[in-house]
């Protein structure tokens, strides 16, 4: 049994060496292939009209981020406070910039951590702000035979992908790696 374990250990050590660079690269690819356009499309619905659209959120932005407060204000954004505006603008910018940073592998750990926080807030808003908590199919359940629930199943996979990036960094072919190489040679 010992020779087999030794052979297995040698094989897995080599995988571990490649995994430190390949796993984060695959996580970034997975994020870009499945979520980058999703978040950018969502951000586009929040950008207001005109040149200053990034600073003047659309009414849809308030409806998505603060659904109950916006409804209580009669769907009039001017009735909401500065904090609502700040959160809406920051959320819109985060939806644009954080996925871009992850895809490029620039400040990957910080961007992935920010994106994980964003996904957590998004999930809570979907559950409590938009009433998803009342629908079992939206919330879902772990350890069941249905892997397609919006919150517990899908968002857990998103967070796993982001956790890999927080812990491992950008991996091979990342801007982080390029910057670290330049700093080492300088």
Annotation keywords:
single chain, 186 residues, mainly alpha, transmembrane helix, DoxX
Notes on the structure:
With about 190 residues, the protein is mainly α. It has one domain. It contains eight helices and no strands. Helix 1 crosses helix 4, helix 1 crosses helix 7 and helix 5 runs antiparallel to helix 7. The longest helix is centred in the first third of the chain and has 43 residues. The mean pLDDT is about 95. It is found in: Membrane. Keywords: Membrane, Transmembrane, Transmembrane helix. InterPro entries: DoxX. It holds the Pfam family DoxX. This is Putative oxidoreductase.
Set out the fold topology.
Blueprint: H1 2-44, H2 59-65, H3 67-72, H4 82-104, H5 108-129, H6 136-139, H7 150-168, H8 175-185
Helix pairs in contact: 1-4, 1-7, 4-5, 5-7
Protein name: Putative oxidoreductase
Keywords: Membrane, Transmembrane, Transmembrane helix
Subcellular location: Membrane
Order of helix and strand elements from N to C terminus: HHHHHHHH
Helices and strands: which structural class? mainly alpha
Q: How many domain regions?
A: 1
Distance between the termini: 50 Å
Q: What is the helix fraction of residues, given as a range? A: over 70%
Average pLDDT number: 93
Rg (C-alpha, Å): 21 Å
Low-confidence stretches: none
Biggest beta sheet attributes: none
Strand portion: under 5%
So what's the overall shape? flat
Give the total of beta strands. 0
Number of distinct helices? 8
Short description:
The chain is mostly helical. The chain has helices at residues 2-44, 59-65, 67-72, 82-104, 108-129, 136-139, 150-168, 175-185.
């Amino acid at each position: 049994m010992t020779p087999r374990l030794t052979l297995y250990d040698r094989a897995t050590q080599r995988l571990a060496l490649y995994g430190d660079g390949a796993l984060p690269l695959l996580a970034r690819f997975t994020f870009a292939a499945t979520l980058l356009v999703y978040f950018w499309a969502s951000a586009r619905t929040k950008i207001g009209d005109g040149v200053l659209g990034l600073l003047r959120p659309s009414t849809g932005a308030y409806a998505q981020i603060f659904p109950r407060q916006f409804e209580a204000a009669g769907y009039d954004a001017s009735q909401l406070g500065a904090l609502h505006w700040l959160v809406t603008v920051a959320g819109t910018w985060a939806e644009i910039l954080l996925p871009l940073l992850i895809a490029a592998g620039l400040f990957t750990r910080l961007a992935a951590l920010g994106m994980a926080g964003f996904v957590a807030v998004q999930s809570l808003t979907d559950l409590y702000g938009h009433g998803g908590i009342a629908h079992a199919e939206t919330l879902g359940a772990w350890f069941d035979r249905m892997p397609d629930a919006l919150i517990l199943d899908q968002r857990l996979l998103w967070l796993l992908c982001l956790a890999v990036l927080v812990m491992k960094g950008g991996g091979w072919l990342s801007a982080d790696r390029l910057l670290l190489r330049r700093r080492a040679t300088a």
